[in-house]
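Entry for the shared binder. Reason: the reviewer on the internal report wants the predicted structure included alongside the sequence.
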Amino acid sequence: MRGLISRFGKNIWGQYKTRRSFYSYIVWIVLKIKKRFRVGFKCNACDSLMRVDVVIPTVSKDFIMLDHVIRSLKHIKHNVNKVYVVAPRDVLVEKYCLRKKIVFIDENTVLGFDKKHITYSVGGVDRSGWLFQQLLKLSGDKFVEMQNFIVLDSDTVYVNDICFKKKCRFVFYGSDEFHKPYYDAYEYMFGYPPVARVSLVAHMMIFNSDYLKEMKDELEARWNRPWFDVVISTSSSAEQSCVSEYETYSNWVIFHYPEKYIIYPFYNKGQVRICPDDFLCLAASVEYLHSVSFHAYLRN
């Protein structure tokens, strides 16, 4: 019991030191209280008639997870139109998509260039592929059919029903993460600070194509260059995670359309990628999780 209290205290103090803003800290505390009482967990008042597409960018290290991710999409409580897998050309993945009636998108055709267009490394580690993934997620409006689409990280599996629009408002999920360079990048790109007081990096997000286009148009008008070049320009050899597509889009929406969103706690668990089948059986019995993320980096 004493150890539990000690860990809780360290977490509280760590969050306060990291955020360096009393108001942001209070907002985080409120979010934790909401999570304790399962606020927003159930899909009450969900707009189940809303048609959405689902976009899953993936890379070779996550191919092992793809079938688990696809099968878990049944938990999305909206009318799913099409599922798109965006990835490097791979015979096995393309055959899988064909068999499952999923649309395969060659990642190199989306933006007109590949990750070699990006020069971004930190400490000798190539981060161009990671940044390229951010751009792909912000480009779903180029190929989806529906006005609204959900982007899901390819290492994250739904284990309970989840909703992305309630009472005419889009749902963003607030997490414990706080990474200052993401906020610095946002202010650099737009010229004004982000307004969200909690992180909205949640391994998934609903995008509205009209809002996304408007955001990218704003970037291009401000910088007089393609929006993706603006995002790429946030990279630094001193920072391995320079910008977040989720943090960028959600903060832009909150600033411009404050009446169109609501923030709920993020009901997710990170899990070491050892045996997904065994853990999914366990996770499915956990009443208060929306998703489980099998992050490859947790093995380290």
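Summary line for the report: The longest strand covers residues 79-87.
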